[in-house]
Amino acid sequence: MIDLHAHILPGVDDGPKTLEESIAMLYQAQADGIHTIVATPHTLNGVYTNTPETIAQKIDQLHDEMKKNDISISVCPGMEIHICEDLHSRIENKSLIAINNTRYVLIELPAPLIPPQFKDIVFQLRLKGYYPILAHPERNFAVQKDPDIVYDFIEWGVFMQLTAVSVTGFFGGRIKKLCKNMLQNRQVHFLASDAHSPDNRPPVLSDAYFKCEKILNDQKEAHALIESNPKKVLENKPIEVNEPIRKKKWFRLF
Q1: Distance of alpha carbon 109 from alpha carbon 45, whole angstroms
Q2: Exposure of 105 by Cβ count < 10 A (0-12 exposed, 13-18 middle, 19+ buried)?
Q3: What DSSP state is assigned to residue 86?
Q4: Which pLDDT value is given to residue 250?
Q5: Structural domains of the chain sorted by starting position, each given as residue range(s) with its CATH number in brackets
Q6: How far apart are CA 248 and CA 243, in angstroms?
Q7: How far apart are the C-alpha atoms of 95 and 130, rounded to whole Å?
Q8: 135, 79, 82: which is closest to 102 by C-alpha?
Q9: Tens digits of per-residue pLDDT, 58-73?
């Protein structure tokens, strides 16, 4: 399995604080069957502003420690980027990085709302040849209030990435149900751990994968969320996705 979104680097954001914690998380990931993790520390979210240089240094440090601990996972560079109006320009001038330095960009919205400029930011990214992947849309309050807005995001060219523990119920029944509906509507393209610690939010995908397989009733579709689609991202290849299913709404006439 490939985990496209994990806070695995020590001391750079609200993920692991120490190198020992990072190694503990990597042991968990390896035991779960994850062979590749993209390190995606927060940046531009008002608290953390990580640089490509910092991330590269931390990954090198982590790889050195992994060799000592017989951990064979591949760790790739990335960022979880809070949306901003000049996002495409910052990627082009290399102050921000896409996933594994490809054309795929992991972005996040502010939790309470969807900023009015979001559509234009997506348009500019697509115009410059980038493919935005929206992290945990199920945890955005506006999406929870109006789930149909996800259809618009996908129409604009945004890929959807659910958090594994959202699918299994860690964030509560409402979010779990929203994840189920998004999966049934074929609105999900990736499943990732969004791991933050070895105890509270570990890098584990298998439980959610089996849940997705059951919801989708299709092993191949579920597998695409944690292997074939992420693999194409890392290789900078196009992803073929199913057309979302729009459920009919029935209105009673009086």
Answers
A1: 9
A2: buried
A3: T
A4: 52
A5: 2-234 (3.20.20.140)
A6: 15
A7: 15
A8: 79
A9: 999 999 999 999 999 9
Contact criterion met (CB below 8 Å) for 7 and 203: no
* Helices and strands in the chain: count of H runs, count of E runs: 11, 9
The arithmetic mean of pLDDT across residues 47-62, rounded, is: 96
Closest to 38 (Cα-Cα) out of 66, 3, 88: 3
**Cα gap 159→104, rounded to integer Å:** 10
Give me the percent of the chain exceeding a pLDDT of 90: 93
User: How far is Cα 142 from Cα 46, in angstroms, rounded to an integer?
Assistant: 20
Residues 158-207: pLDDT tens digits?
999 999 999 999 999 999 999 999 999 999 999 999 999 999 899 999 99
What tokens does 78 get? 């990335």
pLDDT score recorded for residue 242: 83
201 and 165 in contact (C-beta within 8 Å)? yes
Exposed/middle/buried for 229, CB within 10 Å: 0-12, 13-18, 19+?
buried
User: Which residue, chain included where needed, has tokens 């955005």?
Assistant: 140
| Structural tokens at position 36 | 């590749």
Contacts of 130 (CB under 8 A, 6+ apart): 88, 91, 98, 103, 104, 105
CB atoms within 10 A of CB 35: 13
